[in-house]
């Protein structure tokens, strides 16, 4: 592995030159800019865990392509154990960062594209998998971070890609050359984009025959000519700009993943980096396999966040002298229960995982959808309980400037103190941590990341096998199992 540590990772980012805008200005150094540095540090934890004795086994894997030791974030799942290790790794990283560490998006993209490329080649005699393997071996050997780029702007959502008045609302191929393709459009909400090395572009939805130019997969370096990124705002980012460290709540890491718009303005992609081109019937599989892996993740990374939140609230209750109240214990019990329920779901869809034709393992898609659907509720309920227990001071707490002020600092200390033996600064810091993990943009990812709740409900209904459930009910009610049987009986009756 070329990148061996967090420091190597940060140094590797400084060698790249992506074009990134934030609040109308260019970011020159993503590693040190106050808006992006917390996200770089969170992603860097994925490198650090691979070096720590306690987490090495979870954070590394043996490449099935080279036999070499690689980061798990670049691995193609070879068995159920790989899927389970991923879940455990993501929870651990959620606990260490309290936020999104971003690297799973590319990880899931790699797994989706690998298994689908195998099937495309089998049907069409193409060589996408060989090209993909070549690219992936470099990603594994150099230990690069990949942003999985899926979500297109979509413009008028009642219209298909080719019917949009602006064709760039979906990323598409605008020119095919002998040596490659030229790509135009944009991807939105791209987690970890500004601090990745490579972009893996995938279609945003199943495409039809008319949309061949939109049905492609390819990889480009983040600083390829024609790429511009616009980094998103987050609630409280001005606090970070001014280095108000306590008021930030989580000084080392960001509130969410650090998302950006990636614009592709006629970006040239050489043929050996194109992994699907026009085989429209496979686009749905790429989207669905990617989504299933990512939905499974949420019962892992977000439970790590819930662990932190539950710990923060429990400590705050100790500081405030309420920890012995029976309703407090009951609410904390509920927070733990909801968190572990989600984790069970993430483990379950991994244990029920199965090999695709390529040999790469895929999670159980029904259970992965159930897992993510519950995240859209349980994480919010855990946050609600945290705010309930923390109290109104979360919204009215004076700033760090006042705490440090010669004139009013002693008043803030006096009136925000709790039990005698815990410093007031602890109460303020924990309060700000809870604020950062429950307010503003903190929970949006749990709702919409890996697809909005409705996307999971569609798949849950589709995969729910209602026909079989009806059969079960009919059998117990003593009804004929289907129409044919009913008809057969009626016909027999007539004959008799
Ligand atoms: Fe990974 Fe979770 Fe962030 Fe998705 S939301 S990239 S699964 S940490
Ligand atoms: Fe996410």
Structural write-up:
- This protein is α+β, with helices and mostly antiparallel strands and 496 residues long.
- It has three domains: 6-283, Butyryl-CoA Dehydrogenase, subunit A, domain 2 (Beta Barrel), CATH 2.40.110; 287-462, Butyryl-CoA Dehydrogenase, subunit A, domain 3, CATH 1.20.140.10; 466-495, no CATH class.
- Helices cover 50% and strands 14% of the residues.
- The chain is built from 19 helices and 14 strands.
- It has helices at 6-14, 37-48, 56-59, 80-97, 104-124, 128-142, 237-241, 245-248, 283-320, 326-351, 365-390, 393-396, 400-404, 409-415, 424-438, 444-448, 453-463, 466-477, 483-495, and strands at 19-22, 25-26, 60-62, 69-71, 146-149, 172-177, 180-191, 198-201, 216-221, 227-231, 259-270, 274-277, 354-355, 361-362.
- A six-stranded mixed β-sheet has the order 2-1-10-11-7-6, with no helix packed on it. Strands 5-8-9-12 form a four-stranded mixed β-sheet. A two-stranded antiparallel ribbon has the order 3-4.
- Helix 11 runs antiparallel to helix 15 (424-438).
- It is globular and about 90 Å long.
- The structure holds iron/sulfur cluster (SF4) and fe (iii) ion (FE).
